[in-house]
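Hi R.,

As promised on Friday, here is the backbone we talked about, encoded as C-alpha coordinates. Could you run it through your design pipeline when you get a chance and send me back a sequence?
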Protein backbone atom coordinates (compact mmCIF):
# COMPACT_ATOMS: atom_id res chain seq x y z
CA UNK A 1 0.00 0.00 0.00
CA UNK A 2 1.32 3.42 -0.88
CA UNK A 3 0.92 5.14 2.48
CA UNK A 4 1.81 8.50 0.99
CA UNK A 5 -0.70 8.33 -1.83
CA UNK A 6 -3.37 10.88 -2.61
CA UNK A 7 -6.05 8.45 -1.50
CA UNK A 8 -5.30 9.06 2.19
CA UNK A 9 -6.93 11.77 4.28
CA UNK A 10 -6.36 13.20 7.75
CA UNK A 11 -8.95 13.80 10.44
CA UNK A 12 -9.07 17.45 9.44
CA UNK A 13 -9.68 16.41 5.83
CA UNK A 14 -12.55 14.18 6.97
CA UNK A 15 -14.08 17.11 8.86
CA UNK A 16 -13.97 19.23 5.69
CA UNK A 17 -15.46 16.45 3.58
CA UNK A 18 -18.36 15.99 6.02
CA UNK A 19 -18.87 19.68 6.75
CA UNK A 20 -18.33 19.30 10.49
CA UNK A 21 -15.92 20.57 13.12
CA UNK A 22 -12.71 18.63 13.71
CA UNK A 23 -13.76 17.30 17.20
CA UNK A 24 -16.79 15.60 15.61
CA UNK A 25 -14.47 13.26 13.71
CA UNK A 26 -12.71 12.22 16.91
CA UNK A 27 -16.10 11.60 18.50
CA UNK A 28 -17.17 9.39 15.57
CA UNK A 29 -13.93 7.44 15.80
CA UNK A 30 -14.42 6.77 19.50
CA UNK A 31 -18.14 6.08 19.37
CA UNK A 32 -18.65 3.93 16.27
CA UNK A 33 -16.93 0.58 15.88
CA UNK A 34 -17.42 0.64 12.10
CA UNK A 35 -15.53 3.90 11.64
CA UNK A 36 -12.59 3.32 9.26
CA UNK A 37 -9.30 2.38 10.86
CA UNK A 38 -6.29 4.68 10.36
CA UNK A 39 -3.01 3.57 8.83
CA UNK A 40 0.38 4.64 10.17
CA UNK A 41 2.40 6.81 7.78
CA UNK A 42 5.43 9.11 8.10
CA UNK A 43 2.86 11.93 8.27
CA UNK A 44 1.03 10.31 11.17
CA UNK A 45 -2.29 8.47 11.17
CA UNK A 46 -4.27 8.78 7.93
CA UNK A 47 -7.42 7.15 6.58
CA UNK A 48 -8.34 5.55 3.26
CA UNK A 49 -10.47 8.14 1.45
CA UNK A 50 -12.84 5.63 -0.15
CA UNK A 51 -13.51 3.93 3.22
CA UNK A 52 -14.24 7.31 4.81
CA UNK A 53 -16.61 8.40 2.04
CA UNK A 54 -18.42 5.05 2.18
CA UNK A 55 -18.84 5.46 5.96
CA UNK A 56 -20.12 9.04 5.57
CA UNK A 57 -22.77 7.79 3.14
CA UNK A 58 -24.00 5.46 5.89
CA UNK A 59 -24.19 8.14 8.58
CA UNK A 60 -27.46 10.15 8.66
CA UNK A 61 -27.19 13.81 9.62
CA UNK A 62 -29.13 14.58 12.84
CA UNK A 63 -32.20 16.75 12.31
CA UNK A 64 -30.72 19.60 14.34
CA UNK A 65 -27.59 19.62 12.16
CA UNK A 66 -29.31 19.69 8.76
CA UNK A 67 -28.57 22.65 6.53
CA UNK A 68 -31.39 24.63 4.95
CA UNK A 69 -31.04 22.76 1.66
CA UNK A 70 -30.78 19.27 3.18
CA UNK A 71 -33.77 16.96 3.54
CA UNK A 72 -34.42 14.65 6.50
CA UNK A 73 -32.55 11.41 5.93
CA UNK A 74 -29.59 13.05 4.19
CA UNK A 75 -26.22 11.61 5.10
CA UNK A 76 -22.84 13.23 5.57
CA UNK A 77 -21.78 11.56 2.34
CA UNK A 78 -24.19 13.84 0.48
CA UNK A 79 -21.94 16.74 1.45
CA UNK A 80 -18.88 15.25 -0.22
CA UNK A 81 -18.06 17.00 -3.47
CA UNK A 82 -18.49 14.67 -6.48
CA UNK A 83 -14.88 15.29 -7.46
CA UNK A 84 -13.77 13.94 -4.07
CA UNK A 85 -15.86 10.78 -4.30
CA UNK A 86 -14.32 7.53 -5.57
CA UNK A 87 -15.67 6.28 -8.86
CA UNK A 88 -17.67 3.61 -7.08
CA UNK A 89 -19.47 6.30 -5.10
CA UNK A 90 -20.37 8.46 -8.05
CA UNK A 91 -22.54 5.64 -9.32
CA UNK A 92 -25.14 3.74 -7.31
CA UNK A 93 -22.51 2.06 -5.17
CA UNK A 94 -23.09 -0.77 -2.75
CA UNK A 95 -22.17 1.49 0.16
CA UNK A 96 -24.57 4.19 -0.89
CA UNK A 97 -27.22 1.57 -1.50
CA UNK A 98 -26.70 0.22 2.00
CA UNK A 99 -27.42 3.60 3.54
CA UNK A 100 -30.30 4.63 1.26
CA UNK A 101 -32.64 2.46 3.29
CA UNK A 102 -31.35 4.08 6.49
CA UNK A 103 -31.88 7.55 5.04
CA UNK A 104 -35.46 6.72 4.14
CA UNK A 105 -36.17 5.24 7.59
CA UNK A 106 -34.75 8.39 9.17
CA UNK A 107 -36.99 10.48 6.93
CA UNK A 108 -40.09 8.43 7.79
CA UNK A 109 -39.48 8.77 11.52
CA UNK A 110 -38.17 12.34 11.53
CA UNK A 111 -41.44 13.80 12.80
CA UNK A 112 -41.80 11.37 15.69
CA UNK A 113 -42.12 13.20 18.98
CA UNK A 114 -39.62 12.14 21.61
CA UNK A 115 -42.44 10.99 23.88
CA UNK A 116 -43.52 8.49 21.21
CA UNK A 117 -40.29 6.50 21.55
CA UNK A 118 -39.02 7.22 25.04
CA UNK A 119 -40.05 3.82 26.44
CA UNK A 120 -38.18 1.96 23.70
CA UNK A 121 -41.28 0.18 22.33
CA UNK A 122 -41.22 1.86 18.91
CA UNK A 123 -37.61 1.03 18.07
CA UNK A 124 -37.87 -2.44 19.59
CA UNK A 125 -40.72 -3.16 17.18
CA UNK A 126 -38.67 -1.77 14.27
CA UNK A 127 -35.81 -4.10 15.22
CA UNK A 128 -38.17 -7.07 15.24
CA UNK A 129 -39.61 -6.05 11.85
CA UNK A 130 -36.14 -5.84 10.29
CA UNK A 131 -35.34 -9.27 11.74
CA UNK A 132 -38.56 -10.70 10.23
CA UNK A 133 -37.74 -9.21 6.85
CA UNK A 134 -34.29 -10.81 6.94
CA UNK A 135 -34.92 -14.23 8.48
CA UNK A 136 -38.65 -15.01 8.55
CA UNK A 137 -39.98 -14.52 4.99
CA UNK A 138 -43.11 -16.65 5.54
CA UNK A 139 -44.12 -14.74 8.67
CA UNK A 140 -43.29 -11.46 6.92
CA UNK A 141 -45.60 -12.42 4.08
CA UNK A 142 -48.39 -13.18 6.54
CA UNK A 143 -47.95 -9.73 8.05
CA UNK A 144 -48.32 -8.14 4.62
CA UNK A 145 -51.56 -10.03 3.98
CA UNK A 146 -53.25 -7.93 6.65
CA UNK A 147 -54.71 -4.58 5.70
CA UNK A 148 -52.43 -1.68 6.67
CA UNK A 149 -54.95 -0.49 9.27
CA UNK A 150 -54.94 -3.93 10.90
CA UNK A 151 -51.21 -4.59 11.00
CA UNK A 152 -50.64 -2.56 14.15
CA UNK A 153 -52.93 -4.93 16.04
CA UNK A 154 -51.16 -7.98 14.61
CA UNK A 155 -47.59 -7.28 15.71
CA UNK A 156 -47.80 -9.36 18.90
CA UNK A 157 -49.22 -12.40 17.12
CA UNK A 158 -46.82 -12.14 14.18
CA UNK A 159 -43.78 -11.80 16.44
CA UNK A 160 -44.92 -14.79 18.50
CA UNK A 161 -45.28 -16.84 15.30
CA UNK A 162 -41.67 -15.96 14.51
CA UNK A 163 -40.48 -17.08 17.94
CA UNK A 164 -39.85 -13.51 19.14
CA UNK A 165 -41.90 -13.89 22.30
CA UNK A 166 -40.38 -10.93 24.15
CA UNK A 167 -40.94 -8.67 21.15
CA UNK A 168 -44.53 -9.93 21.07
CA UNK A 169 -44.97 -9.00 24.74
CA UNK A 170 -43.54 -5.53 24.16
CA UNK A 171 -45.64 -5.00 21.02
CA UNK A 172 -48.80 -5.51 23.08
CA UNK A 173 -48.13 -2.06 24.53
CA UNK A 174 -48.89 -0.56 21.12
CA UNK A 175 -52.59 -1.37 21.38
CA UNK A 176 -53.40 2.03 22.87
CA UNK A 177 -50.65 3.94 21.05
CA UNK A 178 -51.69 7.15 19.25
CA UNK A 179 -51.83 7.25 15.43
CA UNK A 180 -48.76 9.51 15.40
CA UNK A 181 -46.74 6.56 16.70
CA UNK A 182 -48.39 3.85 14.61
CA UNK A 183 -48.29 5.56 11.20
CA UNK A 184 -44.48 5.58 10.97
CA UNK A 185 -44.43 1.84 11.75
CA UNK A 186 -46.74 1.23 8.80
CA UNK A 187 -44.46 3.29 6.60
CA UNK A 188 -41.42 1.32 7.77
CA UNK A 189 -43.17 -1.95 6.82
CA UNK A 190 -44.02 -0.62 3.37
CA UNK A 191 -40.46 0.63 2.93
CA UNK A 192 -38.85 -2.65 3.98
CA UNK A 193 -41.15 -4.53 1.61
CA UNK A 194 -40.66 -2.18 -1.32
CA UNK A 195 -36.96 -2.85 -1.78
CA UNK A 196 -35.01 -5.96 -2.65
CA UNK A 197 -33.08 -5.52 0.56
CA UNK A 198 -29.68 -7.16 0.80
CA UNK A 199 -28.41 -8.35 4.20
CA UNK A 200 -26.08 -5.34 4.37
CA UNK A 201 -29.01 -2.97 3.78
CA UNK A 202 -31.02 -4.52 6.58
CA UNK A 203 -28.02 -4.63 8.91
CA UNK A 204 -27.54 -0.89 8.42
CA UNK A 205 -31.19 -0.25 9.34
CA UNK A 206 -30.94 -2.65 12.29
CA UNK A 207 -27.88 -0.87 13.68
CA UNK A 208 -29.57 2.51 13.24
CA UNK A 209 -32.63 1.29 15.15
CA UNK A 210 -30.38 -0.20 17.83
CA UNK A 211 -28.66 3.16 18.25
CA UNK A 212 -32.03 4.87 18.58
CA UNK A 213 -33.18 2.30 21.12
CA UNK A 214 -30.04 2.92 23.16
CA UNK A 215 -30.78 6.65 23.15
CA UNK A 216 -34.37 6.05 24.31
CA UNK A 217 -33.53 3.59 27.09
CA UNK A 218 -31.77 6.12 29.28
CA UNK A 219 -32.46 3.94 32.31
CA UNK A 220 -30.58 0.98 30.80
CA UNK A 221 -26.99 1.62 29.79
CA UNK A 222 -26.04 0.15 26.44
CA UNK A 223 -22.31 -0.13 25.83
CA UNK A 224 -21.26 2.16 22.95
CA UNK A 225 -19.81 0.21 20.05
CA UNK A 226 -16.48 1.98 20.44
CA UNK A 227 -16.24 0.81 24.08
CA UNK A 228 -17.31 -2.72 23.11
CA UNK A 229 -14.68 -2.74 20.38
CA UNK A 230 -11.97 -1.61 22.82
CA UNK A 231 -12.92 -4.26 25.38
CA UNK A 232 -12.95 -6.99 22.73
CA UNK A 233 -9.51 -5.94 21.50
CA UNK A 234 -8.16 -5.83 25.06
CA UNK A 235 -9.28 -9.44 25.50
CA UNK A 236 -7.40 -10.58 22.40
CA UNK A 237 -5.67 -12.07 20.65
CA UNK A 238 -8.57 -14.48 20.41
CA UNK A 239 -7.44 -17.89 19.24
CA UNK A 240 -9.37 -20.79 17.80
CA UNK A 241 -11.39 -22.61 20.44
CA UNK A 242 -11.56 -19.59 22.74
CA UNK A 243 -14.74 -18.89 24.68
CA UNK A 244 -16.17 -15.63 25.92
CA UNK A 245 -18.98 -15.16 28.43
CA UNK A 246 -20.74 -11.85 29.09
CA UNK A 247 -23.06 -12.31 32.10
CA UNK A 248 -24.88 -9.01 31.42
CA UNK A 249 -25.03 -8.98 27.66
CA UNK A 250 -27.80 -6.38 27.07
CA UNK A 251 -28.15 -6.12 23.27
CA UNK A 252 -25.11 -8.30 22.56
CA UNK A 253 -22.89 -5.42 21.50
CA UNK A 254 -19.82 -6.90 23.20
CA UNK A 255 -20.42 -10.40 21.87
CA UNK A 256 -20.75 -9.01 18.35
CA UNK A 257 -17.40 -7.24 18.72
CA UNK A 258 -15.71 -10.37 20.08
CA UNK A 259 -16.90 -12.23 17.00
CA UNK A 260 -15.63 -9.42 14.80
CA UNK A 261 -12.18 -9.38 16.43
CA UNK A 262 -11.99 -13.18 16.23
CA UNK A 263 -12.81 -13.07 12.52
CA UNK A 264 -10.27 -10.43 11.52
CA UNK A 265 -7.56 -11.89 9.36
CA UNK A 266 -9.51 -15.08 8.76
CA UNK A 267 -12.34 -16.99 10.37
CA UNK A 268 -11.51 -18.13 13.91
CA UNK A 269 -13.98 -20.58 15.49
CA UNK A 270 -14.94 -19.28 18.93
CA UNK A 271 -17.77 -19.73 21.41
CA UNK A 272 -19.53 -16.67 22.85
CA UNK A 273 -22.20 -16.80 25.52
CA UNK A 274 -24.24 -14.17 27.26
CA UNK A 275 -27.02 -13.81 29.77
CA UNK A 276 -29.20 -11.04 31.18
CA UNK A 277 -31.85 -10.92 33.92
CA UNK A 278 -34.30 -9.37 31.43
CA UNK A 279 -35.33 -11.85 28.71
CA UNK A 280 -36.11 -9.00 26.30
CA UNK A 281 -32.44 -8.05 26.18
CA UNK A 282 -31.37 -11.63 25.53
CA UNK A 283 -33.75 -11.71 22.59
CA UNK A 284 -32.31 -8.46 21.26
CA UNK A 285 -28.81 -9.93 21.60
CA UNK A 286 -29.93 -13.01 19.68
CA UNK A 287 -31.26 -10.85 16.86
CA UNK A 288 -28.11 -8.72 16.86
CA UNK A 289 -25.82 -11.74 16.59
CA UNK A 290 -28.00 -13.23 13.85
CA UNK A 291 -27.90 -10.01 11.84
CA UNK A 292 -24.10 -10.15 12.05
CA UNK A 293 -24.02 -13.69 10.71
CA UNK A 294 -23.87 -15.75 13.91
CA UNK A 295 -26.90 -17.90 14.77
CA UNK A 296 -27.36 -18.12 18.55
CA UNK A 297 -29.26 -20.68 20.56
CA UNK A 298 -31.13 -19.99 23.79
CA UNK A 299 -30.39 -22.03 26.82
CA UNK A 300 -32.79 -22.85 29.63
CA UNK A 301 -34.06 -20.40 32.18
CA UNK A 302 -32.43 -20.27 35.59
CA UNK A 303 -33.08 -18.47 38.84
CA UNK A 304 -30.27 -15.96 38.30
CA UNK A 305 -30.45 -15.52 34.55
CA UNK A 306 -33.89 -15.93 32.95
CA UNK A 307 -32.25 -16.67 29.63
CA UNK A 308 -28.77 -17.48 28.43
CA UNK A 309 -27.73 -17.41 24.81
CA UNK A 310 -24.85 -19.25 23.21
CA UNK A 311 -23.08 -19.06 19.86
CA UNK A 312 -20.90 -22.09 19.26
CA UNK A 313 -18.11 -21.82 16.74
CA UNK A 314 -15.95 -24.77 17.24
CA UNK A 315 -12.07 -24.61 24.39
CA UNK A 316 -10.30 -21.50 27.76
CA UNK A 317 -13.02 -19.04 28.69
CA UNK A 318 -12.69 -15.28 28.66
CA UNK A 319 -15.11 -14.08 31.33
CA UNK A 320 -16.03 -10.45 30.81
CA UNK A 321 -17.79 -8.82 33.74
CA UNK A 322 -18.98 -5.24 33.63
CA UNK A 323 -19.51 -3.17 36.75
CA UNK A 324 -23.03 -1.97 37.52
CA UNK A 325 -22.25 1.74 37.54
CA UNK A 326 -20.68 2.15 34.10
CA UNK A 327 -20.25 -1.48 33.09
CA UNK A 328 -16.48 -1.13 33.17
CA UNK A 329 -14.52 -4.32 32.49
CA UNK A 330 -13.19 -5.88 35.67
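Update: got your reply. Pasting your designed sequence below so it's all in one thread:
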Amino acid sequence: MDTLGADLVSRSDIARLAGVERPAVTNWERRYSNFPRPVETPRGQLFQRDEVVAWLFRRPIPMKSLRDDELPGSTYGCRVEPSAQPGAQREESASEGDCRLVREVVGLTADLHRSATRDGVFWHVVLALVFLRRFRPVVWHHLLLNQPAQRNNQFAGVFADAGLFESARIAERLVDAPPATLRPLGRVIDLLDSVAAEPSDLLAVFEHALDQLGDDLSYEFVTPRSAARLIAEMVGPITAGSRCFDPFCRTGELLVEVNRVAGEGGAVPVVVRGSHPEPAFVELAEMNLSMHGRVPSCRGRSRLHPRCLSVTGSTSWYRIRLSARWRKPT
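One thing I noticed while checking it: Residues 86-97, 298-306, 312-330 have pLDDT under 50 and may be disordered.

Thanks again,
M.
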